[in-house]
Amino acid sequence: MNAAPQEITSLVGREVYSNNGVFVGEIEDVRLDLDARAVTGLALAELNHELFAGRVDGNTGVIVPYRWVRAVGDVVLINDVIERLDTDEEADADTEVQPT
Length: 100
Prior knowledge:
By secondary structure, the chain is mainly beta. It has one helix spanning 49-52, and strands at residues 15-18, 23-33, 38-45, 62-65, 69-72, 76-78, 98-99.
């Protein structure tokens, strides 16, 4: 069963949660790869400050790689990797969160 395509802008304003139910932030914008015609990241604002303490200041957002997205509906679910951000310098390459 194929769902009808939605406008990319319909993502803006949706809340993002980990697949464990932890609030991560709210989508403020999307990052696009125009050549591939694909969404590559979600720019989040209104962050869960407990998750990002010491990584971003209060006025900064983050970009979460779109490959972490597990489901899109009324809210967006992402992998729980966001909850396991490693503070070591040897952090796994798959746990990159970029400040915006």
